Amino acid sequence: MNKVFNLALVEKYSVQGPRYTSYPTAVQFNEALDAARFSQLISASNASRRDLSLYAHIPFCDTVCYYCACNKIITKNKKHASPYLDHLAHEMGAVAEKLDANRKVVQLHWGGGTPTFLSLAEQWRLTRLFRDHFNFVGDDEGEFSIEIDPRTVTPASIAALREMGFNRLSFGIQDFDTDVQIAVNRIQGQDETKLAIDEGRKQGFHSISVDLIYGLPLQTTKSFARTLDKIIDLSPDRIALFNYAHLPHIFKIQKQIKETQLPPGQERLNLLEMSIQQLIDAGYVFIGLDHFAKPDDSLVKHQQAGTLYRNFQGYSTFSECDLFGFGLSAISQVGNSYSQNIKDKKGYYAAIDAGKLPTIRGVELSQDDLIRRKVITEIMCNMKLDWQAISEAFAIDARQYFADEIQRLQPMHDDRLLTLHAGGFTVTPPGRLLIRNIAMVFDHYLPQVAQQTFSKVI
Ligand SMILES: C[S@@+](CC[C@H](N)C(=O)[O-])C[C@H]1O[C@@H](n2cnc3c(N)ncnc32)[C@H](O)[C@@H]1O
Ligand code: SF4
């Protein structure tokens, strides 16, 4: 039972479910939380003096990958970037003027789309905007990361990112196999990828991570094993191995993917089993969900100490920050609320041009939401739950509060996804792979949400 992959369990528990980068999930966001309310929440957040985590969404890409589920705008016209930055500047100014200038920024992330769609001059402009508006901690204290499409960088531009203050790089790779790359319209050479990663190391970035996807068209265990060999040679500190989320009714570009070329169910499971084994054999630790890290990586250390956290950027070592997201579709997490920006460029520009914050929807958490969020975060991050700690944190009798859920955990205990004991429960290695199923037991809203909204957990 120490093995992470257990075919019978995976088959039994393979359902659709949320990834819990937030709880409640974005499906629960509604228009009651509008720009005016968000503005009040920003000002009110100063009393907490919480540190800040900042996100910028750069939606542009110059070619489209057929599998892509990100919020992006495909264009080869670089002229779109400058007006976008003008609007980001206004948004950032409007938020920053409400915030206590002493609050420290411990985390920054640029995501997309493709942040390196911006020219170097534009990347510097955005860097200065952030640095002028906010108070950043030093390089040793904070995590400043950017998503890189290796096809859009050079050694010189990677060096420039270090000068801009970034200290972590996240590279999109997906698969090195030529046939798979053609099938998903993402032709990416191994040499250009290696050059970018090697330059990242040379420039002293603290951490390098890569994104891979299993379940893409034409993937076989043999071909993907070769990709993993090459990844292991590149020796990233962290590896995200995403399960391909094929939802063509939501992400229209995925209609370009030939469904007949997708690996059938059994092959998909073989791909997952083989990948987990190959990465563990190479010395990586399985963090949970779809993340692996080297044993000396801070994610592993924080998980061992029970202090790992989760937000919209995935696993994180900083808890209790207020997160401000800027740009199209960006999500903020401020105090006990989540809010999201308008998703389309026209609407986003119109709101900002009218002098408004571009907030479109969100949710303020009830006491029940807060309790369940804490429980779900503990499960997703630290793989265990201590009823006493939950009882003390919320002045409740957690065992009584969750009496129904504890009963529903019993079959998972019998299947050895977790071990229930008097004080709480601990997730077993096969349970780590099915961690969403365990968290879903505590999701109050799930029965009301159409399952096809979410991707499959495996
Ligand atoms: C914003 S994208 C990556 C940044 C950059 N544009 C690139 O492509 O290199 C973040 C990651 O999401 C993952 N991703 C995108 N669409 C996905 C899907 N349908 N299923 C699973 N993972 C997906 C990919 O691994 C991708 O690297
Ligand atoms: S995977 Fe990256 S480069 Fe490809 S379309 Fe999505 S955001 Fe753009």
In angstroms, what separates the terminal alpha carbons? 19 Å
Please mark out the parts with pLDDT under 50 across 5 or more consecutive residues, or reply none. Answer: none
Question: What percentage of amino acids are in beta strands?
Answer: 15-25%
Q: What ligand species are in this complex?
A: S-adenosylmethionine, iron/sulfur cluster
Mean pLDDT: 94
* Bulk shape: globular
What's the tally of helices?
17
Structural class: alpha/beta
Q: Tell how many strands the DSSP assignment holds.
A: 20
Major sheet attributes: 10 strands, mixed
Fraction of residues in helices?
25-40%
Radius of gyration: 22 Å
What report would you give on this structure?
With 458 residues, the protein is an alpha/beta fold. The protein contains 17 helices and 20 strands. The strands form 5 sheets. Strands 1, 4, 5, 6, 7, 8, 9, 10, 11 and 14 form a 10-stranded mixed beta sheet that branches. Strands 15-16-17 form a 3-stranded antiparallel beta sheet, covered by helices on one side. Strands 18-20-19 form a 3-stranded antiparallel beta sheet. Strand 8, helix 8 and strand 9 form a beta-alpha-beta unit. The longest helix is centred in the middle third of the chain and has 17 residues. The model has no long low-confidence stretch (mean pLDDT 94). The chain starts with 6 loop residues before the first helix and ends in an 18-residue tail after the last helix. Helices cover 38% and strands 20% of the residues. Iron/sulfur cluster (SF4) binds next to loops. S-adenosylmethionine binds next to strand 4, strand 7 and strand 8.
